[in-house]
Amino acid sequence: MTMTLLRHLAAAIVAGAVIWAASVQLNAFRDFQIAEIAVYVVAIAGLSVLIGLSGQISLGNGAFMAVGAYAAALLMLHLNWPVWAVFPASAVITAVAGGVVGVAAARLSGPYLAGATLLLAVALPSLANQFPGVFGGDQGLSLTVTAPARLGATFPVTRWQAWVCSAAALITLVILANLTRSRVGRNWRAIRDDPVAAALTGLNVARLRVLAFVVSATCAGLAGAMLAFTTTLVSPGSFTLSLSIALLTGAVLGGLGTLAGALWGALVIVLVPTYVTDVATSHGLSSGVAANIPIAAYGVVLVVVMLLFPDGIQGGLRRLAGPLIPANLTRLTLPDRHPTAGDQQDGLPSPDRRRPVGEHQEEGTK
Amino acid sequence: MNRSHRTRTLAVAAVVAAALVAAGCGSSSSGGSALAASAPGITKTQILIGSHQPLTGPAAPGYSEIAPASNAYFQYVNAHGGIYGRKIKYTYLDDAYDPSKTASVVRQLVLQDSVYAIFDGLGTPTHLAVVKYLNSAKVPDVFVASGCDCWNNPTTYPETFGWQLDYIREGKILGQYVKQHFAGKKIGLFFQDDEFGMDGVKGLSYEIPASQIVSKQSYVPTNVNIGPQVAALKASGAQVVVSFAIPAFNALLKLASLKLSFSPTLVASNVGTDPITLGGLLQAFAKQGGATVNGNALTQGIITDGYLPTLGDTGNSWIALFKKVHDQYDAKAPFDGNVLYGEAVAYTFVQSMLKAGKNPTRADLTKAISGGLPQGPAVAPYDYSATDHGGMTGAFIGVIKNGVIVQQGPVLTTDTTPTGAVTPYSGTQAPAPSSGMP
Which of B66, B90, B100 best probes binding to A when mutated, by most A CB atoms within 10 angstroms? Predict the structure, then answer.
């Protein structure tokens, strides 16, 4: 256990050094993109753990990001809290919200859970319009973010944002990596694979589901606070249903249940649209076409990845690298869930391959 | 092999050509004041500006036509000598009307592409995401495409300038018309539940006596079921409904009223009444509901206002100019209110760049606008000064007849205060220059 922790810490320190070196070399906009990627890594990692390990689905993590973002904005605006206090506080506040929803959600599964969380994604951000006095209505809350004075007057604020967000993301990943490898992680996998069997061995299925939901919401809340810190504005328009869908897409693309997959998913979400827009505009395409190419490219990437790597990018890399990488370095899933030849033919991502959780439950209650 | 050889020959030819062009530029401008790279985004040959626009997503229908129309006018200017010989390059990126994306694309434009200025950034919630950033980075943020009064704040946002008539003034102008023409009648209000609608209602309430207003109904753009609001307006007995809504919701309002056999006189903000957009939406929505309607018949008689010459006024020199530019550079788009808007705001930008001087810094541009701009395509003067970054000050009342807005009466100007009078504008609008260049 301590060895695992040390290994994860060492990996995080190496990753931190690489990000630091990159942030100093790259231009200010690339620094901003590093911060954006960090935001999505945290949000997707939380969702990926929920879906890939505990077998629940959430379309509402965009709404939890809104909770975290508004919490962060209010703390910064009214109490002038420093960022190192705002991030954990926002995460805790969102954890409470996630707990409330999770208690209700633990009784639902499959499409019903998706529906309930969808409701959350649609309804929650519009609360900001209902209470414009507190949340600033459609205009949202605007923040001022500056780099600490000791870094010098000319220090680019985007590099500061990249550092803070990357640090938060790395800490989150270390915690998640240890959590998923701990007894809790094993229990999640047990209730995912067969809740009835898990219950028979004495696991409290409902409590484990709520816990997974809370962990996922906490990550989303932290990501929301990071987003507020990066974009310096929190408004309902940022937390539409399409954000929740994008997080889900990122998690599936990267590889459900893997933390490295969260990085791939975030990279695709942040970099593909910018890169494709650059290419499209530099080739002089008409604006109507160029504007829609990023969406089309996103779709093409999704289709190609799902066809070639039904386990997501991380799953695909793992299969390509095969025996070169020790399984325990990249995988959080159990060895017995290696995709089989039969599974690959159906071309479905891994969560669909097992029997829906709901089916088991129905059998259990008959 | 053969092919790569030819590619290399072409590349060499291109380099030689570029060198010749560069040498040519160098020699021609060596006498007198030479063109210099005086600011980020400005080279000897080019002015690079950027914008965030909803090219996809919910706000795209209609609004996505604006930036290509601006670009069409810039191409016209480039083909006619450019600005002191420099060509304008206009990079507008899609933010899908999502403020988080706006924050990202505007940083890309400023930090990576090094644009000289952000021009015509579209939308109130979206542009609010970047207004602080642009001002702290000292990037000129000119002619925001939103009528929010919030851009007019020279102390906090010295780099930011509005352009179109703000919603408070618009509300006052429409309100005065309602007060004069519908005295004693019951008035209902229908408005979008954000800055746009609330600023409009503020302006209306400065003019319309409170006793006449029988019902105030708001909607949120994400909920298309406005049946309850329309029923409440009908129940209140409103004879006139004043609407501050986007085109889609004016169309829904009209159709929901039809369903309830409720036919008040409709007075609506300019934002939501471009007859071509509105007529098209009415037909599309009715079709979804399994009915066929005539868009022009339904928009007939809607009272609105306009701050640019009306599209139907083909004898107007400004309309003739913008139609000519549209036909030449942007013919695929319909010549509607959005296209007119895009071209007119581009014209204003060229005006201010010419005023900013031959080798302008970023501060020269904001100084030029703060010093006041000639009226150009706007029907009423701008109020730009060191202490006012608002933009247009007035509009005329118009009525939609057979799919075009027909002007009724004089151009009216006013201010944004509760007591400032709405008065007819005594000046006349100068015709468009025959060269098409400011």
Answer: B100
Q: Which chain A residues are within 8 Å of B195, Cβ to Cβ?
A: 137-139
Residue for token digits 């895009």? B342
Q: What is the CA radius of gyration of chain A?
A: 20
Helix axes A157-181, A259-282, angle to 10 degrees: 140
Q: Is the distance from CB of B226 to CB of B253 less than 8 angstroms?
A: yes
Contact at CB, B99 and A140, closer than 8 angstroms: yes
pLDDT at A110: 78
Q: Nearest CA to A168 among A222, A227, A234? A: A222
CA-nearest of A50, A55, A52, A18 to A37 is A18
Contact A187, A199 (CB under 8 A): no
Check if A27 contacts B (Cβ < 8 Å).
yes
A291–B97 CB contact, under 8 Å: no
Residue A296 at interface with chain B, using a CB cutoff of 8 Å: no
| Residue A79: pLDDT over 60 | yes
- For helices A205-231 and B99-107, give the axis angle rounded to 10 degrees: 50
Whether the predicted pLDDT of B312 surpasses 90? no
* Chain B partners within 8 Å of A295 (Cβ): 56
pLDDT band at residue A301 under the 50/70/90 scheme: confident
Residue B436 neighbours by CB distance under 10 Å: 18
A161 touches chain B (CB under 8 A): no
Count CB neighbours of B231 within 10 A. Answer: 16
- Measured between beta carbons, which residues in chain B are less than 8 angstroms from residue A292? 55-56
* Spatial contact of B122 and B246, defined as CB atoms under 8 Å apart: no
Q: Which residues of B277-293 are buried (b: 16+ CB within 10 A; e: fewer)?
A: bbbbbbbebbeeeeeeb
B110 chain-A contacts, CB cut-off 8 A:
29
Antiparallel, parallel or unpaired: β B117-119 and A233-234: unpaired
- One-letter identity of residue A322: G
Q: Does A4 touch chain B (CB under 8 A)?
A: no
* B interface residues, A as partner, C-beta within 8 Å: 55-56, 60, 64, 67-68, 71, 91-94, 97-100, 103-104, 107-108, 110-112, 124-126, 128-130, 132-133, 150, 193-195, 220, 222, 332
Specify whether the CB–CB gap between B177 and B302 falls below 8 A.
Answer: no
Check CB contact under 8 Å for A291 and B55. Answer: yes
Could you tell me if A357 and A195 are in contact, meaning their C-beta atoms sit under 8 angstroms apart? yes
Phi–psi pair at B10, nearest 5 degrees: -60, -45
Residue A45 in contact with residue A258, Cβ under 8 Å?
Answer: no
CA distances to B206, B436, B437 from B78, rounded to whole Å, are 45, 12, 10
What ipTM was assigned to the predicted interfaces of this complex?
0.73
Please give, rounded to a whole number of angstroms, the shortest distance from the CA of A134 to a CA of chain B.
14
Q: Residue B220 is nearest to which of A33, A36, A126, comparing CB atoms?
A: A126
- The helix-helix angle for A61-78 and A83-105 (nearest 10°) equals 140
Among A27, A237, A288, select the one facing B98 at the smallest CB separation.
Answer: A237
User: Length of chain A, please?
Assistant: 366
Residues B335-377: tens digit of each pLDDT: 989 999 999 999 999 999 999 999 999 999 999 999 999 999 9
Contacts of B387 (CB under 8 A, 6+ apart): B154
Contacts of A152 (CB under 8 A, 6+ apart): none
Q: Give all strands (DSSP E) within chain A, no chain letters.
A: 141-142, 233-234
First to last CA, chain A: 40
* Shortest Cα distance, chain A CAs vs residue B181, angstroms: 34
Q: Tell which of A23, A29, A161, A278 to mutate to test the B interface (max B CBs under 10 Å).
A: A29
Q: Amino acid letter at B54?
A: P
Tracing tokens 């919910």 back to the chain, one arrives at: B58
Q: DSSP letters along B333-362, please?
A: S--SHHHHHHHHHHHHHHHHHHHH-SS--H
